[in-house]
What we know:
By secondary structure, the chain is an alpha+beta fold. The protein has helices spanning 5-10, 19-29, 61-64, 80-85, 97-106, 115-124, 130-138, 141-149, 209-224, 243-301, 306-312, 339-353, 375-384, and strands at 34-38, 52-59, 166-167, 174-183, 186-190, 198-202, 234-241, 315-321, 327-330, 361-367. The strands form 2 sheets. Strands 1, 2, 3, 4, 5, 6 and 7 form a 7-stranded antiparallel β-sheet that branches. The chain has a 3-stranded antiparallel β-sheet with strand order 9-8-10, with helices on one face. The chain is elongated and about 115 Å long. It starts with a helix and ends in a 6-residue tail after the last helix.
Amino acid sequence: MPVDINRLTEGWLELESDPGLFTLLLEDFGVKGVQVEEIYDLQKSLEGPVYGFIFLFRWIEERRSRRKVVEQDESFVKDEEIVNNIFFAQQVVPNSCATHALLSVLLNCPNIHLGTTLSRLKMHTSGMCPENKGWAIGNTPELACAHNSHAMPQAKRRQDKNTGVSTGRFTGEAFHFVSYVPINGRLFELDGLKPYPMDHGPWKEHEEWTEQFRRVITDRLGMATGEQLQDIRFNLMAVVPDRRLAISHKLTMLKTNRQIVLEALQQLVKLSHQDGTEKNSNDSDKSDKSYDKKNKTDDENVPPNKSEVDESSSVPTITVERNNDSTIDTEESATSVTSGKAESNMEKVVMCALDYATPLRIQTSPAHSSSSTDTSSEIGSAFNSPTQGK
C-alpha cells in the first residue's frame, strides 16, 4: 500500500506527557530494555543509570521568539561537523515533539537496543543536517503509526503548520518537549524548535552527569517560576533501563538461590536422620551392654538363696566320736555366704548342740550335698539325737 508523504507530515496527533504511554511508544518503535519513568524530586540524587531526560513545559510567546532570534547568552553549538554527528533533528512536523524528544535520547546512546526501524533511521540519517533529519522522522510511516496509536481520543489535528508544539487538552495552551542527553562528556540540550543544540558544559570530576543536569534544570525552573510568570506547570521524565528486566533477573536469582538452599537443607536433614539412626543404634547397644553388665554385677553381689546353696555349695561332713568309738556323721547345705562364715556358724551349731560330759572328737571332711534342703533340721537331728549311731 503506497504511503502518502504529505498526509504523514500533517497527520501527527497530540500525545500526553505520561511515562507509561512513552514506555509503550518505545516498545512500538521496537526498542528493548528501556522504559520511561517520572521524576518527582530534584533535591535528591538520581539513582541508577539514566540515558537521558525529557522535560515538558508550557510554551509561551516569549520563548517562541527564540526560534527566530538567537540570544547571545545561549551556548549554541554551530560547528556543522559536531552538529551533524549528533542526532539533532529540527521539528518540521506539527505535534511530533514527543517522538522527537524520545529519538533525541535513544539515537544518541550507544548501548541501547534500537530495533529494526530506529537502527535503519540512525544509519540513513548519519551525517545529515538537522533539517533533513527532521524530514526523515516525519516521513517514516512506522514512527507516525506508533505515535498516533497512543494519541488522546479527543485530540485534533492542528492546522497551523508553522507551530511544532502540542496544544493543551482543554484550554488550547501549548506545551513542548525537550531532551537533555550526555554526549562525549558534555551535557547537551536538544530542542527541535531551536536551530542548534545547546552545550551546558562538562560535569565535575568524580560525579555523575545527572548532577550537572540537576543544576541546569534547577536554574531553568527558577527562571520559569519568577514573579512575572508564576508558571510551575512542567513535567520531568527520565529514560532509564527497563526495571522489569532487572527485577526479573533478581527474581530468577532468588528462585535459584531458594532451590540451592532447599537442596542443602534436604541434604542436612538426610544426614541428620542418618546420624540420629546411628546414634540410637549405638545408644541401644550401649544400653544393652550396660544392662547386661549391671545384671552381672547384681548377680555377683546378691547372696544366693537356699536352693542355690543346696545345689551349688558342698557341705562338710561332721563326724562325732565318743570314747566308746561311736561316731555321728552329718551333711549340711550352706547358704550363699562365704566359706569362713559358714564354718564359723557350723562350729557354733556343733558346740551348742553337743553339751555332754563326755568329750567329743570332731572330724570334718568334704561331702556331697544330701537331698534334704533343711540344713538346720539335719544338723539339729544329728546333734539332738546323739544316741543314734551306727
